[in-house]
Each structure stands twice: as C-alpha cells, then as structure tokens.
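Archive maintenance. Older records in this collection stored only the sequence; we are now back-filling the structure field for every entry so that each record is complete. The fields below show one back-filled record exactly as it appears after the update. Entries are processed alphabetically, and FAD-dependent monooxygenase is next in the queue.

ARCHIVE ENTRY
Title: FAD-dependent monooxygenase
Organism field: Nocardia acididurans
Length field: 366
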Amino acid sequence: MPKVIVVGGGIAGLATAIAFQRRGWEIEVLEKAASITEVGAGLSIWPNALRALDALGVGEQVRARALEEGSAGIRDAKGRWLSRTDEAAVRARYGSPIMMHRADLLDILRAAVPETALRTGISVTGVRAGGTVAHSRGESTGDLVVGADGIRSTVRRALLGDIQPRYSGYTAWRVVVAPAEPITRMGETWGRGERFGYGVLADGRVYCFATANAPADSPGGGLAELRRRFGDWHDPIPALLAAADEAAVLHNDIYDLPALKSFVGERIALVGDAAHAMTPNLGQGACQALEDAVVLARVAAAGGPLTAYDGERRPRTRMIASRSYRIGAVAQWESAPLVALRAAIMRLTPASAQFKALAPVLDWTC
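Back-filled structure field:
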C-alpha cells in the first residue's frame, strides 16, 4: 500500500489525507500544534468547494452544520447600494454557497481521519529526496510528501528555496458576535481604504470581518480600533460592533504568495496556502485547498507524473489569486475621486455581468 506523509493538519492537510485515504493510500499527518483546533472565524464555502467536499465524502455533514449564504450585495459606508446580487441566478447556475464556522469544518474533516494517522506536537525541520521528512521526533518516510503547512511552508522551502510572502497593504479583523437582534442576510460595505462585511452562521451568531489600509505590523488592532473606524457606518454595523467581545477579536495582516514556478518536485507536492496563499477577496482560499486535495489524490492514485497535478492546479489557482488581488486593490482605494469612480462603475455594471464573471471560479468539477 503506498503511503503519503502530509505536513500540516489544517483544512488543506486533513482534506488531502481524506482524499488519499479514499484512494487506498496509507496516510500520516504531521501537525506542529499540540492539538488540531481552529480559531473563531467564519468561512464561505462556494459551490466548487462543495463539490470537492462531496468527493471527500463529507459534503452532507458540512451542509448540515452550515447556513445557505444569502448575499444582498455591496453598499457604501452610508448604506447606499453599489451593486446587488442576483441570488436566484447564482443559485440556479452554480448552486448556493454556504457559511459556516471554520472550527466546524475542521471538526468534520478531523473526524474523517483515523486518530492513529494524526501525529500532533511535531515540528518538521526538513524534507529530503526519496520522500523522507525530518522532524522533532525523528523521521517519516512515504511514497509522497505533501506540504500543507501554510504560507510559511517548510516543505515549500525545501522544494523551491526561500520565497517570502507579500504584504497586501491592508490589515484585517475577524470576530464572531451574538447580536441583540437577528441578522438574516450577509452583506459587505466599501469605504475609503476600509471595508466591513458580515455573514450569518447556522446558530444565529454573525461572523464579521473588516479591512483597512495600514503599514504591516501596525499597533492598535483591537475592538476599540474597529469601533473607531466603523462605529458610524450604516446599520447593522454599529450594533454588531457593540455586541463584540474584545477577547474574540482576531487581527492579522493580509499576505499572499508570488506565483510559484511549480507546485511539485520529485515525490513532493504543495497544496493550499503552501502553494498559492491568496488574499480573501473572493472567499476562495480554503475552497482552492479542497480542490487541490481531490485533484492531487486523483493524479497520484492514477500513477501519472506529479506534473499533471501542477499543470491542472497552478494555472487555475494563479488566475483566482490574481483576480482576488485585483479586487482587493480596487476595494481598498482611498482617493476620493477614485472611490467616486468606483461607485459609479459598480452602479452601472449589470448584475448579469457579475454573474458571468463567477463562471471561471465556480464552474469547477472534480
């Protein structure tokens, strides 16, 4: 029985382990954290990723713990509409995206991997030719090593050298709140160099996210800063911030990766953020990791060269990452004339054009 060593026990790593297990491979997952957990944040799962989850055999479990995502569209800070979403058209063509807590998805994926295959508290120090992984408890050897160890991947460094992530120019906050009044729709608001969005989770809590232009590693990333920036924006944003708990606020600068020359080497492959970390503007980071897992396992099980995986995944993820980066750049404009121009263009763009633009991203099938 062939064996795969998966470095990283997050969404990308667990999905990869499941995909290979379903193909009859022995699996070993190495995770540096003492336990496999997820911080408190929401996650959009688009129809392309739902198809990947179905291929992994966990799609129905995921849907049972999620809520269909109904997006009204994008507004400005005063609540005026910039664009509206044709939800019926999206649902009819692509299927409905869902919103869930990241921890719930991780729980489902973790439960599908045998406990004997999960090795936590292990720090990987290097990868050598022949499928050998050196780590804090010795070595592990397999027929394939998969780097699912995030944007600062040790496996990627062994494969491609030192490739530094790029700062996007903006920072982000995430927080899950229990609002005093129920929220039934999700929405996003664009200001000048700032954005705020929210989506409803299955238990009625609301996942909020915000961005702001700032130098990397800027201080002042707590709830007070969120309220200062967004407390006078349109409803329900002030109420959501009023319901937030300081201890629940997560603050991270946004980075992505430059385009890699390859996702594979001899008996080594990269998935998820290790391969194509992208800005969150299309909500496709985790979705692309799930696609990676399914495709890599299919290619490996067929006995073909890993370059087939690279050829299938690298152009697609680069297209999506580039599009996400461009959307973020426009969404973070600060100049008043540019913001006014952006608003005018968005109001004039028909919903049908936005709908068609989703096709290259959402039309993916296993």
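Update note: The chain has 14 helices and 19 strands. The domain at 3-68+100-165+257-331 is CATH 3.50.50.60 (FAD/NAD(P)-binding domain).
Entry marked complete.
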